[in-house]
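Usage

Read records sequentially. Each one opens with the input sequence:
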Amino acid sequence: MGLVLNIIQLLQLLSALGMIGLILVQHGKGADMGAAFGSGSSGSLFGASGGANFLSRTTGVLATVFFVCTLGLAYFGNLRPATGGSVLENAVVAPVSSDAASAVPAPAAVPASGAAQIPTK
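and closes with the structure output:
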């Protein structure tokens, strides 16, 4: 189980870093206005509009991988053991020795009535 969680965490980390890189490489919608007037798109790597499609689709795929990994980590993180419903049911209680039991002071006496008592000076 630990190996599966490590692989899912590694995939989530790599997809997050890939998304960050791709989002920073993409240009905003304001840059398209400048390209419409003849500047900027002539030296692009993917052509006039090919880069936007490739980068946006790759970002979408990485976002899908990121969300699937997140759901997988949430599912595996909330699995309960099949033997019991509570962590306290499986707890091991250490035996109390007689020396430790005698060292605990007895609790103070509780007044019989429910009224609060005000100490006098």
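Summary fields computed downstream for this record:
- Residues 1-29+50-81 form one domain.
- The CA atoms of residues 35 and 72 lie 42 Å apart.
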